[in-house]
Specification:
The structure holds two protein chains of two kinds. Chain A has helices at about 10-45, 55-70, 125, 155-160, 190; strands spanning about 10, 50, 55, 110, 120, 130-140, 145-155, 170-175, 185, 195-200, 205, 215-220, 235. By secondary structure, chain A is an alpha+beta fold. Chain A has a five-stranded mixed β-sheet. In chain A, strands 6, 7, 10, 11 and 12 form a five-stranded antiparallel β-sheet that branches. Chain A has a two-stranded antiparallel ribbon with strand order 2-3. In chain A, a hairpin with a 5-residue loop joins β6 (about 130-140) and β7 (about 145-155). The longest helix of chain B has 29 residues, at about 60-90. Chain B has helices at about 10-35, 50-55, 60-90, 95, 100-115, 130-155, 160-165, 170-195, 200-205, and strands at about 1-5, 40, 45, 210. In chain B, strands 1-4 form a two-stranded antiparallel sheet. Chain B has a two-stranded antiparallel ribbon with strand order 2-3. Classes of the chains: A alpha+beta, B mainly alpha.
């Protein structure tokens, strides 16, 4: 760019020709650009699906997740609220909460990888760990949110206690309902976040069935879809676990 | 003699026309997301009525919307940053940004003129005061959309940002309100473009607007021939 004033001054006839040539050329370029744009869009939207999303979009969702994971740190806490700010919580999802369930015979199965023998825990094995109460915002992926009071144990404390000592912690955690109808996959960093709880209380009372009795996951750093209710199995694994909603086109990471 | 007046630099034309479909896709995917929790209304007018969702097939596409929104956000933001950087580096911002408070008075004057309530226009450079205010406001709105967007995208990691906008639910409301602002801007913009006519519209594509120079004034014997692409 050499000259700021680049007006073109020409005799009438030449100006008309110049204008015509430029119009022709630039509308052609514009037309080609529009075709390229629409073509790219069509290509993206019609690309083969990867878990309910066209693969280019799935790759970007995963990339966004990686970026979030890299910059997510324990120092980033969801704000805490006072008891007066607690709001009602909608019991949104009931997948995995079939009526064929008995709390008394419920045990939490904990598996490390695929080979190690699993252990089976009672609720008292979990509630004997240091109890944490927190009042945080619960964000649903639909867009609504509630301020909820939770009581439970940190998943990090649970892992310290029940993950085999001396072994390296795998990259992921999978959690599954007893009927295996609902399942979530978590990156280890988010799972070990200080606000990630295995919760057995809401508003100071034992969890209701609709909210995941006897034990559910609560993690304010993820959308509600990851906060699995009625956990039957916890598996530590190095393979990225399946995730119910990620198979339906949602982001696997779903971090906040 | 005739003058082909260079109105829009080639880079700015590209930024503009790239932004247009990207902003459209951001708004469209935003509506797909909004459907899942459509709580805003203006008195009895709800955003949006049922027929709106059903006619445009917007219902039950939250996952679609999120995948699109978090894909195209990158291109939208990159193009926006490139545009702002370009206006700063090229010095074009000097013409685009109102440089004194009198711009607001002048903009009112321009509005009256456009509504045919006043015949004269205030003195102006390349853009009149109303344009300067609109084109600056739209950039500030863009920054607001990105920031409120980040606040609702990452309210844990960026809790401070959500707090700046009065908390998570507020940030979502502002994000929505800004989008409504773009739609209003777009409507006014379309009307203005339609009223300004073909020569003006074409200049947004070819860069030049044809202007007749009365013979007496035409002193340009030499052809100032500079290609815009150099």
């Amino acid at each position: 760019m050499s000259n700021r004033n680049r007006d073109i001054i020409l005799p009438e006839e030449e100006a008309r020709r110049e204008l015509r040539d430029r119009t022709r050329r630039d509308f052609l370029i514009g037309g080609v650009a529009a075709v390229v744009g629409v073509g790219s869009y069509e290509w993206i939207m019609k690309a083969p699906q990867d878990n309910g999303a066209p693969w280019p979009q799935r790759s970007v969702l995963n990339l966004n997740g990686k970026i979030s994971e890299k910059y997510l740190s324990d120092s980033h806490l969801m704000p805490s609220y006072s008891a007066g700010q607690i709001s009602p919580l909608k019991a949104n999802g009931d997948i995995g909460l079939g009526s064929d369930f008995d709390t008394n015979t419920w045990r939490l199965q904990v598996v490390n990888g695929d080979q190690a023998p699993s252990i089976r825990l009672r609720l008292s094995d979990i509630s004997s760990l240091p109890k944490v109460n927190m009042i945080t915002r619960f964000c649903c992926i639909e867009g609504w949110s509630s301020i909820v009071s939770w009581g439970g144990v940190r998943f990090s404390d649970f892992t310290k206690r029940y993950f085999p000592p001396g072994q390296t912690l795998p990259h992921y955690v999978a959690m599954v309902t007893p009927d295996e109808n609902y399942y979530v996959g978590l990156d280890m960093k988010s799972a070990l976040h200080p606000q990630t709880l295995l919760a057995y209380e809401r508003n100071g009372k034992p969890l209701e069935y609709a909210h995941g009795a006897p034990l559910r996951l609560v993690m304010p750093v993820k959308y509600g879809i990851k906060n699995i209710k009625r956990i039957g199995l916890i598996r530590y694994t190095n393979t990225r676990p399946d995730d119910y909603w990620a198979e339906e086109g949602y982001d696997w990471f779903a971090g906040l | 003699m005739q003058k082909l007046k260079l109105k829009h630099l080639v880079a700015i034309r590209w930024f503009h026309w790239i932004n247009f479909p990207l902003l459209f896709l951001m708004i469209w995917s935003g509506i797909l997301i909004y459907w899942a929790y459509p709580i805003y209304h203006l008195g009895p007018i709800t955003f949006f009525p049922k027929w709106f969702y059903s006619t445009l097939h917007i219902d039950h596409r939250l996952a679609d919307g999120m995948a699109m929104h978090f894909f195209f956000m990158w291109l939208f933001v990159i193009n926006g940053i490139a545009y702002v950087t370009y206006t700063l580096v090229s010095g074009e911002w000097l013409l685009l940004v109102p440089r004194s408070w009198s711009a607001f008075r002048d903009a009112w004057h321009v509005l009256l003129h456009d509504l045919h309530l006043r015949s004269d226009m205030p003195a102006q450079d390349k853009y009149n005061a109303a344009q300067q205010i609109s084109y600056t406001a739209i950039i500030i709105m863009g920054v607001g959309s990105v920031l409120t967007g980040l606040a609702i995208y990452k309210p844990a990691q960026l809790a401070w940002l959500a707090a700046v906008f009065g908390g998570y639910p507020n940030a979502r409301a502002i994000h929505f309100l800004l989008t409504a602002g773009y739609v209003l801007f777009f409507i006014v913009h379309l009307i203005q473009v339609a009223l300004a006519g073909w020569n003006n519209f074409r200049s947004m594509i070819i860069g030049y607007e044809a202007i007749k120079i009365p013979e007496t004034q035409s002193k340009a014997k030499t052809l100032e021939w500079v290609d815009e692409h150099e």
